[in-house]
Write a structure and sequence with these properties.
With 713 residues, the chain is mainly β. It is built from six helices and 55 strands.
Length: 713
């Protein structure tokens, strides 16, 4: 690759969406406003735009942008992160291809411009982005040059028509509101005749508390069909519309399917160990089934489970395939799955006969939580957080390019396709999560902009670290988007980034307050660990050859983290300098919840006995027998170790204790915790304890979510 010289053909301006890129002046404009970019972020954008529509491998991008310098891959990720922030959330311009690179996905138009900038470039991949060799050919052949001009004009016209076709997708004035609840409704499902919509009145778009409702469209009154405390997910109508099936999860982590009559009545069990159920015909169903521990695969069977056969099973034990969607011709299945870290993956397309493991579809740079088919089978639809916020996308079957069809300040999740193919129903949300602190001065808000979460106090209680992410965090915290870590001074209220521009998945502060460990995604999307002084006296240092998630400081400032080893996930430990890598626990775990202040106990959600049903357990690092705590009971400590928060209850501890007296088999409910001596309830969401029990951080969420009908072409 050679640097551009003044003797080369004069380059052009580039237009995409509301932006204009001027390579000569090194300026990016949005309308009449200049968008500030660092020099290297500008070079990264210029490289992506010149190769719009094509995958750029990370290695070749690094060689092009830093030709004479050895650079860690994190530098490229940082520049892409900065570009996404600069370009905003209204359109998704840069697509991440997991484990490979990036693609600029917006249509790009070119206009005449002046002399080229001095930027190292990749070999051109499109006819209008010619290499130096092809420019010499054009100068030597007028006929070729004339043909090139015609090709350029046709491509520009086609790109312009493509862009305008995207803009013809319905704006918000065409969305029709179907429900008007003051709180939240989620997970819509339309009856086969399209006359009714079922949904869950609750806040969770995955599995959570709530009740099943049904409403006759367009103006019927919503009717509540269930009245219980079970966690619920994924309502769906039977083929004749007489029943609504839905998933429940109980305190023992049993995922079962119940059905309730559409006109009202008592819910009845349909299938045990079956979730996300849909009908594939009058008597045939698809559903997710736990295979081992929490490993969950997609199964096809008759409604009575006769003839059950696997369609798809994830390869790692903690991974879970939750939902499936059968194509109209009955040959293909779209499915939604989590990986071993319980992060949502892109949707997967597999054959119904299970002959292959299929492939990812939809936007590859984000997690897919819901999918659907158009009724003619020509389009696949997805809810994806590509770009950091949930919106709806579609892709022509079988191998079209993903197109974003909703955008803007709201989040859309859930897809119910109308039978006439002219519209879909989704849940539209306006939400925000703010971070607050409770101490001797009362309560005050810490995060002002964005969604603040994952707070951690410094040991002296004077500062609070937290993350800012685009998407409001899920109440289960089972998936995370990379965010920026900030440090707030609790006395002055001033907040500043810990490492500006660095996308962080998770982090922790050492018990002496001197070090920070961060987990960040590498070029393949794998979590890598970085350590730096908390006072930022030196830059972060990556721990070589250490791949790990959910880092936490333990005894002696060792770093504990989750690591995939074979098909299972284990807790490992390593010294802050990267030496002494070894397993911390012999048994596999699914999630690591917390570490005691003395670093001697790990609370994790893990299979009982190493291969039994999952439960929260306290594992002593000396190898003694773990203590079963119970399901859905999160445990954290204040830094002084004088009490412990179990669920919503703060329980005092006697000197030398790390845990209170726990009944054999663990707590069956929080009511049992409430009866412990001295236990008191903290009525706040997402409590994280500080230096003592009287100082804690918590969330305040504002959310309103209702169902809307969106017309589609």
């Amino acid at each position: 690759m050679a640097k551009a010289t003044p003797s080369q053909e004069r380059l052009r301006l580039y237009e995409f969406g509301p932006f204009r890129l001027d390579p000569t002046e090194r300026i990016l404009r949005r309308g009449n406003e200049i968008v500030p970019l660092t020099p290297k972020a500008f070079d990264t954008l210029y490289l992506l735009v010149r190769n719009s529509g094509h995958l750029l491998e990370k290695d070749e991008m690094i060689r092009a942008l830093w030709p004479d310098t050895f650079i860690e891959e994190g530098s490229l990720s940082n520049n892409v992160f900065l570009l996404r922030k600069a370009l905003g959330e209204d359109q998704a311009f840069i697509e991440t291809i997991p484990r490979r690179g990036y693609r600029f996905v917006s249509a790009v138009l070119q206009l005449p411009n002046a002399a080229p900038p001095h930027v190292e470039e990749l070999p051109s991949r499109r006819p209008e982005l010619a290499t130096e060799g092809s420019m010499r050919l054009r100068r030597s052949s007028p006929i070729v040059a004339a043909i090139a001009v015609v090709v350029l004009a046709m491509l520009a016209l086609g790109a312009g028509l493509w862009w305008r076709s995207q803009r013809r997708l319905p704006d918000r004035s065409q969305w029709v509101q179907l429900t008007k609840f003051p709180d939240s409704v989620t997970q819509p499902a339309l009856s086969p005749d399209g006359r009714m919509v079922a949904f869950i009145r609750g806040y969770s778009t995955f599995v959570g508390p709530g009740q099943i409702y049904v409403k006759i469209l367009p103006d019927g009154q919503p009717v509540q069909l269930t009245h219980d405390n079970l966690l619920k997910m994924s309502p769906t109508f039977s083929p004749d519309g007489s029943r609504i099936a839905y998933t429940t999860v109980d305190s023992q982590f049993h995922w079962d399917t119940l059905v309730v009559p559409t006109l009202g009545g008592s819910p009845q069990p349909l299938l045990r160990n079956a979730s996300g159920l849909i009908w594939a015909g009058p008597e045939h169903v698809l559903f997710a089934e736990i295979k081992n521990g929490i490993n969950m695969g997609i199964v096809a069977a008759q409604e009575n489970r006769i003839g059950a056969r696997d369609i798809y099973v994830p390869e790692t034990d903690p991974a879970m395939a939750h939902r499936s969607y059968l194509s109209p011709d009955g040959k293909w299945v779209l499915l939604v799955e989590m990986d071993q870290d319980h992060d949502w993956l892109p949707c997967r397309l597999v054959p119904l006969d299970g002959s292959t493991r299929g492939r990812y579809v939809g936007p590859l740079g984000g997690g897919c939580t819901v999918a659907a088919w158009s009724h003619d089978g020509r389009w696949m639809y997805f809810t994806s957080d590509h770009g950091g916020v949930n919106h709806i996308w579609r892709q022509r079957f079988p191998d079209g390019h993903p197109e974003q069809i909703t955008s803007g300040p709201t989040e859309e999740e859930g897809i119910a396709m109308a039978s006439d193919g002219r519209s879909l129903v989704t849940a539209v949300a306006v939400q925000n999560t703010s971070l607050w602190v409770h101490d001797g001065k009362g309560e005050r808000q810490i995060s002002v902009e964005g969604n603040g979460y994952n707070p951690k106090f410094t040991p002296d209680g004077k500062k609070l670290c937290y993350m800012i992410v685009k998407q409001a965090p899920n109440q289960f915290m089972w998936y995370r988007n990379p965010g920026e870590v900030r440090i707030a001074d609790l006395e002055s209220g001033r907040s500043e980034p810990l490492v500006p521009g660095l996308p962080v998945l998770d982090y922790d502060i050492s018990t002496d307050g001197r070090q920070v460990v961060m987990s960040t995604p590498d070029r393949d999307g794998k979590p890598r660990l970085w350590v730096m002084p908390f006072d930022r006296s030196s830059p972060p240092v990556q721990l070589a050859n250490v791949e790990g998630a959910s880092p936490k400081f333990g005894e002696g400032n060792d770093i504990l983290f989750r690591h995939l080893d074979g098909k299972s996930v284990f807790v490992y430990r390593v010294h802050p300098d990267g030496t002494g890598l070894r397993r911390a626990l012999a048994a596999p775990v699914f999630l690591m919840n917390s570490v005691s202040p003395d670093g001697r106990w790990i609370v994790a959600w893990a299979p009982l006995g190493g291969n039994g049903p999952p439960s929260f357990q306290a594992f002593p690092l000396d190898g003694a027998t773990p203590i079963q705590i119970g399901n859905f009971i999160y445990v954290t400590w204040p830094l002084d170790g004088r009490s412990v928060l179990m669920g919503a209850y703060l329980v005092p501890l006697r000197p030398g204790e790390a845990l209170p007296q726990i009944p054999a088999g663990g707590f069956r409910s929080e009511d049992e915790i409430a009866r412990l001596p001295g236990a008191r309830r903290i009525d706040a969401d997402g409590v994280v304890l500080g230096p003592s029990a009287g100082v804690y951080a918590f969330y305040r969420r504002t959310i309103q979510r209702n169902l809307y009908r969106i017309p589609i072409s």
